[in-house]
């Protein structure tokens, strides 16, 4: 079995899939910290892990510690995705290719392999990233903004009277009519702002790419954009890119 890990700034997503091309998922999870991840992985017995591949946007130190803990506890070598200028027909559009977030890089590589045409990749995670790929596989670059959790957290931590619970936040997103409480005003305001931003980005991308691009959405907050126009939800887009970058 292969253990795959996507280490984002909020959550470490992991899954265990078959070694063969079936890609059957035998286990998966989401851990907020390495200690929690290890508990989940050690509880996987009797599943035996023979290979491990990982992509991380955390610091080099945290990523190294994570690979050492996984390698030490599961007895497998951890193969880490690395920056590259070209991969699977996609050319990295950053001036310094090594600075492009590896989650973004793997997501655009996977997206282009899915469609082989101009595409837009939207990852709604801690940050919201939007990347454009031309029809010939050139990554044109993209945009980074705070995600929902960061937007609302900034308001709560930088004001004195914006205070509400996680449950109130969850309830607030039942619809986007004018908020009649602090939680509704903040959560709905931030959601509408992000939705308008994403809609605008999609319109501009179609103009920039010269034809209707394929639009792929992934990330923990993707569900908040469910009613967005015709987009394709690919929750495991980064994992698809990881398999391309680190074939076994
Ligand atoms: N299990 C979860 N519990 C709470 N929030 C979650 C969960 N999964 C995803 N989210 C939401 O998605 C965001 C992070 O999604 P994710 O794509 O995992 O981020 P990253 O890749 O940046 O770690 C959180 O800020 C939160 O809004
Ligand atoms: C933009 C990101 C923080 C998004 O990470 P995430 O929200 O998935 O945790 C990550 O892609 C990153 O660290 N990028 C490096 C900077 C850049 O892409 O320009
Ligand atoms: K991510």
From TrEMBL:
Catalysed reaction(s) here are: (R)-pantothenate + ATP = (R)-4'-phosphopantothenate + ADP + H(+)
Residues holding K(+): 123
Q: Which CDD domains match?
A: ASKHA_NBD_PanK-III
- Entry binding sites for ATP: 6-13, 126
User: What does the function comment of this entry state?
Assistant: Catalyzes the phosphorylation of pantothenate (Pan), the first step in CoA biosynthesis.
Q: What is its EC number?
A: 2.7.1.33
Subunit structure as annotated in this protein's UniProt entry: Homodimer.
Pathway stated in the Swiss-Prot or TrEMBL entry: Cofactor biosynthesis; coenzyme A biosynthesis; CoA from (R)-pantothenate: step 1/5
Annotated Gene Ontology MF terms? kinase activity
The record's section on Pfam families has: Pan_kinase (PF03309)
Q: Which residues form the active site?
A: 103
Sequence positions that bind substrate: 94, 101-104, 182
Which InterPro entries does the annotation name? Answer: ATPase_NBD (IPR043129), Type_III_PanK (IPR004619)
Against HAMAP family, the record matches this protein to: Pantothen_kinase_3 (MF_01274)
Per UniProt, which keywords does this protein have?
ATP-binding, Coenzyme A biosynthesis, Cytoplasm, Kinase, Metal-binding, Nucleotide-binding, Potassium, Transferase
Instruction: Kindly list the cofactors needed.
Output: K(+); NH4(+)
First-level EC class: transferase
Q: Does the record bear Transcription in its keywords? A: no
Q: How is the cofactor bound?
A: A monovalent cation. Ammonium or potassium.
Q: Which domain of life is it from?
A: Bacteria
Supply the name of the protein: Type III pantothenate kinase
* Encoding gene (name): coaX
Do the record's keywords include Ion transport? no
Give the location in the cell: Cytoplasm
Give the family, as the similarity comment puts it: Belongs to the type III pantothenate kinase family.
């Amino acid at each position: 079995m292969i253990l795959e890990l996507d280490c984002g700034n909020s959550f470490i997503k992991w899954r265990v899939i078959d070694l063969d091309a079936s890609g059957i998922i035998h286990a998966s999870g989401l851990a907020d910290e390495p200690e929690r991840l290890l508990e989940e992985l050690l509880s996987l017995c009797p599943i035996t892990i023979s290979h491990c591949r990982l992509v991380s946007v955390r610091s080099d130190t945290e990523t190294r510690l994570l690979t050492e803990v996984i390698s030490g506890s599961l007895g497998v070598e951890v193969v880490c995705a690395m920056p590259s200028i070209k991969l699977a027909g996609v050319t990295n559009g950053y001036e310094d290719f090594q600075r492009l977030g590896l989650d973004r890089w793997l997501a655009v590589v996977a997206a282009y392999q899915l469609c082989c045409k101009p595409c837009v990749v939207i990852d709604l995670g801690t940050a919201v990233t939007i990347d454009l790929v031309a029809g010939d596989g050139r990554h044109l670059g993209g945009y980074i903004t705070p995600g929902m959790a960061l937007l609302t957290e900034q308001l709560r931590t930088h004001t004195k009277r914006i205070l509400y619970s996680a449950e109130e936040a969850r309830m607030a997103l039942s619809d986007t009519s004018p908020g009649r409480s602090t939680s509704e005003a903040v959560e709905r305001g931030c959601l509408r702002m992000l939705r308008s931003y994403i809609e605008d980005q999609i319109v501009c991308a179609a103009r920039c790419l010269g034809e209707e691009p394929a639009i792929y959405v992934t990330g923990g907050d993707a569900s908040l954009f469910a009613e967005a126009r015709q987009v394709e939800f690919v929750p495991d887009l980064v994992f698809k890119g990881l398999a391309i970058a680190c074939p076994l």
